[in-house]
Each structure stands twice: as C-alpha cells, then as structure tokens.
Design goal:
The structure is a single chain. The protein has 259 residues and is an alpha+beta fold. It has 2 domains: 122 residues, no CATH class; 106 residues, SH3 type barrels (Roll), CATH 2.30.30. 46% of the residues lie in helices and 25% in strands. Strands 1, 2, 3, 4, 5, 6 and 7 form a 7-stranded antiparallel beta sheet that branches.
C-alpha cells in the first residue's frame, strides 16, 4: 500500500514535466520521448517539473495568497504515522484547491512545451545550435533542414521548398525498380527509424542490368513505400518561381531545385 501511495505521489510531482515533454515532443517528434530509456526519461521529467513548480509557486502565492506545500504530499509517504494522518487530513481539506492547481499547471505545462517546440522550429534554432536539435534525423532529411544544418544552402532556405520529389530504388522479386513521386507524408517506426514513405503522382521504371525501361504511371491516389524494401533514397527539393506581368498576374511558373 505504501509503495502504491509513494508511486502516486511521485507521479503527481513529476506530472508537470511529463505534460511539458508531451507538448515539446509532439507531432513528428512524439516517438523521441517514448523511446527514451527510463533514466533519461526520469531526468528529462524532473528538471521541467522542478522549474515549473518554482515558477508557479510564487505566482499563485502573490496572486491568490495560496501556498502549495509540497511537504504535505511528501508527508503521505512518511514513516511517521502521525505525519501521514496529518498530511492526509490536510490534503482532504484542500483537495479542490490542490486538484485545480494541478490541472491548471499541467495544462499550462503542455502548452508551454508545445510553444517552445514551435518557436524552435519557426526560428530554426535547432539548425543553428545542436543543443536544440531533435533526435529525429528523418525530419531534417525530409524537410530539407539537414541542408541548413550543414550550411549547404546558399541562396535559399527550407521554407522555400514547395514540394519534395522522392526517387526510391526498390528490389522486387529479383528485379530493381526506381519509384518516383511527390512526397506527401512519412511514418516513423516504434524505434524512431523511418518506416513508411507516402508519395503521390507515382511512377516507376525497371533498371535491372541493361534492361532499363521507361517511367510508367502507377494508378491510384498515393503509393506507400516500406523503408525496409528500399535500397536507397534520393530527395529533390523544388521551389516554383513565378513570373508576373505588369498587372501582377502570373504568366509563367518555373520549377527549380533549391540551392
């Protein structure tokens, strides 16, 4: 029973950090948090929780005069029976205030985490500083941000990309084919590695030996390529440059690879 209560108290104390990380590692980075080992998960949770509590305590005290005493929670798992009973009575007396505080703090923690993530991506803080980089190499490869990390782009930025072409070399029943199309999405596996590529406007041609064919359209709205079947991948990042007339109307569109 004491172990169960102790685990519950620890969970409550760490919940703001968990909420922060759920927001920070959302979207394409959601598997980063889940794939972390227990020790790394604990460390990544303790520090955000500690910071969020330290910020929240003085705010609620000065605004509402409410003092959130963590010692009451810790008293529940004390070996002193009198302290345990006193702590439980205090928790029961202020259960509405404590519950409200925890709900508000955890919602704000999630939003702060998500806002931090969005700011880092919007201003490319992760491509300029490795301390902000997310542990998802495929996000950087697929979005062209890997080019920015390695200072390969001179005239353009990843935000200039209008679409991404994929050329995938695939082995099927002893024959080798090139599949090409416009990337519309990708999916990571449970271990954080690439699992699926989803392309549209798909075509393929046979390239086995000297028997090289021509590209043929693949009917359907989109094609799913499984990464385990791929021999290699090529990404081409395209921007459409528009030519306008004197009235501001588009008279020509030219596709070019970003550089």
């Amino acid at each position: 029973m004491e172990i169960a209560i102790g685990g519950l108290v620890l969970f409550v104390l760490l919940l703001p950090g968990i909420s922060f990380n759920k927001g920070y590692f959302s979207g394409e980075f959601s598997r980063n948090y889940l794939s972390t080992d227990f020790f790394g998960l604990l460390v990544n949770t303790i520090f955000p929780s500690l910071i969020l509590y330290l910020v929240a305590f003085p705010i609620i005290y000065f605004l509402w005069g409410y003092f959130y005493d963590v010692r009451v929670l810790l008293g529940v798992i004390s070996s002193n029976d009198d302290l345990v009973e006193s702590s439980i009575q205090t928790l029961d007396k202020f259960k509405l205030e404590i519950t409200s505080f925890q709900v508000i703090l955890n919602v704000l923690s999630y939003l702060i985490g998500k806002l931090s993530r969005n700011i880092i991506l919007k201003y490319s803080l992760d491509t300029g500083n490795e301390n902000f980089q997310f542990d998802n190499i495929w996000h950087y490869l697929v979005s062209a941000r890997f080019l920015e990390i390695n200072n390969i782009l001179i005239n353009d930025s990843p935000e200039d990309v209008d679409l991404t072409f994929v050329d995938a070399l695939v082995s099927v029943d002893g024959n080798t084919f090139i599949y090409t199309g416009v990337l519309i999405d990708y999916q990571l596996g449970k271990d954080g590695t690439l699992d699926l590529l989803i392309i549209t406007k798909a075509q393929r041609k046979k390239v086995t030996g000297n028997n090289t064919g021509t590209y043929k359209d693949i009917s359907g709205n989109y094609l799913v390529l499984k990464y385990s079947d791929l021999l290699n991948l090529n990404f081409s990042f395209i921007q459409f440059d528009e030519t306008l007339d004197a009235n501001g109307n588009i008279v020509a569109v030219q596709a070019r690879m970003i550089s």
